[in-house]
Amino acid sequence: QRTQIAIVGAGPTGLLLGALLHRAGISNVIVERCRAEDILARSQACVLEDDSIAVLNAAGLSLGAQALRQDSLLLSVDGRSHRVELARLTAGRGLTQCSQTELTRSLMRARAAAGMHTIYEAQQVSLHGFLGADAPLLRYRKQDQDHEIRCDYIAGCDGFHGVSRASVPPDAYRCYERLYPFGWLGVLAECPAAAPELLLAQHPRGFALSVMAGPQRSHSYIQCSLSDRLTQWSDTQFWAELRRRLGPDLGSTLPVAPALDMSITPLRSFVLEPVRFGRLLLAGDAAHVVPPTGAKGLNLAATDTQELSEALAQACRGDHAEQGLNNYSERALRRTWRAERFSWALTRLLHSFPDQNSFDQRIQQAELEHLLDSRAAQTVLAESFVGQPASAGG
Ligand code: RFL
């Protein structure tokens, strides 16, 4: 088989890149390890910047009624909630809440409707020849048969545990990583979130977050210990703990419903430098991971795919050849480190760290008070959340 771009991974990054390339007239094939149903069984919150919505629209996707755009967010500090007016502080920019599952489903459907090729359940995917001058090769096994795809470029969109990064010689890159001493226990339920807006809560018992995932669905998360197991938590215990952390303002009216899904996620920051290796380009979680506190993961993926699709289209058409690809790594990393800084700072501000002493706690309290009292500090927070317009280099 021959295609222009072979994409590894049918998560949101791979699917979005495929859709953008298709729109630019570039042929692509996605090779994915899992079944489509398994990918859709993963449930995660999804909060998107206006620029990410624009990338989805450019890919021909409209989120419709499942997406809820808000001009503000709520910050609950020790049981008291405060509204941060995002749009007023950032000349009209806001955040859209939706479901990552529904977003992925829409991308899959559009891909199938356009006749684009996705190979699910591909085993033993391996990448060859991407550092050489010749066309690289993707090999995989399916139904006891070996297959090959020859292409011009490979896009590694296979997430943090994928094969793409693992195929690069270790002396060709550097990794920067931080693991956090806690995780998030998450519940997806058929009930509204604690508030219409994205809600982030700091509390001495730990962080909490509540977000809409459709008109009648919500994701809720509470900080938990890394040693916690799902068997230790019932729905009732989860809602009681969330209610406690939200305090009287929002806890007393918290809607609850049986959990449709419950999961525990460790929190991690990770950056790979560079993200281009000859004819292999990495995007999304394959290249960088942020703790979800700042809701930046998919937003980074959206900008990665936008820039990468343009650079790949340019290279495939032969005009100015690889100019865009040559710049891809540097531009992506500048954006990534900004998002990493924000996600790290917000995680530090809103979580309880097990090794925190009383001095650290007072500093955290002072920082939160400063944020609630200062319009300038709230503007900085709002700008980081909604993202800066592409023209500002954000
Ligand atoms: P994914 O979603 O991991 O998909 C990668 C795909 O590659 C496949 N794969 C392989 N295929 C073939 N061969 C192999 N050897 C392969 N190895 C892996 C996998 O099966 C999979 O299908 O990465 P992608 O596409 O880059 O997407 C990244 C996003 O999923 C991630 O950034 C977001 O979920 C992060 N995130 C959030 N981002 C936001 O922008 N806003 C949010 O509100 C938000 N909330 C969150 C989040 C992530 C969370 N967790 C789970 C860390 C909330 C949470 C709790």
From TrEMBL:
Q: Which InterPro entries match?
A: FAD-bd, FAD/NAD-bd_sf, RIFMO-like
Leader sequence segment: none
Domain of life, per lineage: Bacteria
Q: Which UniProt keywords apply?
A: FAD, Flavoprotein
Q: Which residue ranges does the record assign to the FAD-binding domain?
A: 2-343
Database matches in NCBIfam families:
PRK08243.1
Q: Provide the protein name.
A: 4-hydroxybenzoate 3-monooxygenase
Q: Which organism is it from?
A: Roseateles aquae
